[in-house]
Amino acid sequence: MIKFGTGGFRGVIADDFTKENVQKIAQGLTDIALKYGWRKKPIVIGYDFRFMSDRFAEWTAEVLAAGGINVLLTDSAVSTPVVMSATKELNNELGVMITASHNPYVFNGVKVFRKNGMDADVEFTDELEKVINSVSAVNVLPLADAKKKGLVKEYSHLEKYVENIISFIDPKIKNNDAKILFDDMFGTGRIGLKKIAERLNLKRFDVINDNRDAFFGFVAPNPTEENMARLKSAVTENGYDFAMATDCDADRLGVLDENGNPVSSNEILACLYYYLVRYRGMKGEAVKNCSTSLLLDMLAEKMGFKCHEVDVGFKNVSAKIKETDALIGGESSGGLTVRNYIFGKDSTFSATLFTEMRIVMNKPVSAIVKEVEDFAGYNYCWHESDCEVSDMNVLEKLKSDGGDDLGAKRVHAFNNNVKYYFDDGCWALLRASGTEPIFRIAVEMRSEKDTLRMVETLKKKLKRVDVRTTD
Predict the structure, then answer these.
(1) Which of 148, 165, 194, 253 is the most exposed place for a label (fewest CB within 10 A)?
(2) CA distance 322 to 310
(3) Cα distances (angstroms) measured from residue 245 to each of 163, 230, 254, 301, 412
(4) pLDDT at 471
(5) pLDDT tens digit string along 401-455?
(6) Terminus-to-terminus CA distance in the chain, angstroms?
(7) CA dihedral 420, 455, 426, 416 (to 10 degrees)
(8) Domains in the chain, ordered, with CATH?
(9) For the residues 105-126, what does the mean pLDDT come to?
């Protein structure tokens, strides 16, 4: 069964991510497009540098073309936000990206976008799953024939994408000599960021790991604190003002400050919100997912606004931004967007905005983070971890188990989550992965000691419930 989670369909190459399955997804999209009369609007298909992403994109195009649907196939590898931006710009009904985002090199995947370049919502992916899993035959029009008939055309949206980002940026940062290190992690982030750095004449924008490597140096292309730790000596020894990295398809951002210390995704999101309101004079509420720090809530309240909380999945963040006209929205995994930009996370955009913030505020990154936390009155410690289980039925057991053993004052069970609330704003979250037998754990307490203790307590709770379930 082909299932779409919070980030689309993903699978291990040659196991469940196969030509056959991707063609079935394409046939499902074709059937839905024909059902709703979307044939008039073309579908943009993009792909990243993962193993055979370009071929999977072509196989997808061949199926759509066989249904008489026009396809705009990117003429080179691109980031996911480029496809989202193109889908919004062209006012299309659908967009498709071949990528497994931040997953290890053995994975690949398919992301689907809807109107305005938003991630496809659950209602749409539920329908798509039903159609895909009932497909009895796949129709294919060879790519050469599809091109001859004009059904598949090469397409580039990169210039408009770069121009759009630059239009959001304060021109005061042009011709600056800030010293920035960027780790492309063998992904697609460099494609937009190099052009932006050149247009803005950022004189010391140094890029590493910017060649194609389908193995990603045998490190998952994910800018986590652990993966970015290898940049610390380069930052301190060469006097960089800060370092950044993006994941494979450039929708997650990681940052190190001038001392080589990690700036968490929670801090990146909060700092940019603070900067937009306090330094650029913008106004508006904020949106976060349920595993994101209290820092954003406290900051919004201090600045006279509200922070809305939604379920995990950037599609939920985007929907709430659209509903409330919020200024910014993001999540603890490293993605964010801003009002009037695309309704999806984009690390090329957020990296450029972070660069603007550092230059305009003219302070070390560590000082900016401290200023934001001091302003908000933030005095908590946030931490996340994972825990494997043998049976995902553990989730249902947790929902009925309660939080008395944890000392929780209130428990909220919803979708794949169980969130525990304690005194003084403290909380803990258990979230079942939609694709793996893993629970994500997020905890925020008043001290690091209490936070780490709760993480271990939750892991023990999972193991106990897991044993009872499997017995």
Answers:
(1) 148
(2) 13
(3) 21, 11, 5, 30, 35
(4) 44
(5) 878 899 999 999 999 999 999 999 999 999 998 767 899 999 999 999 999 999 9
(6) 27
(7) -30
(8) 9-157 (3.40.120.10), 174-376 (3.40.120.10), 381-470 (3.30.310.50)
(9) 94
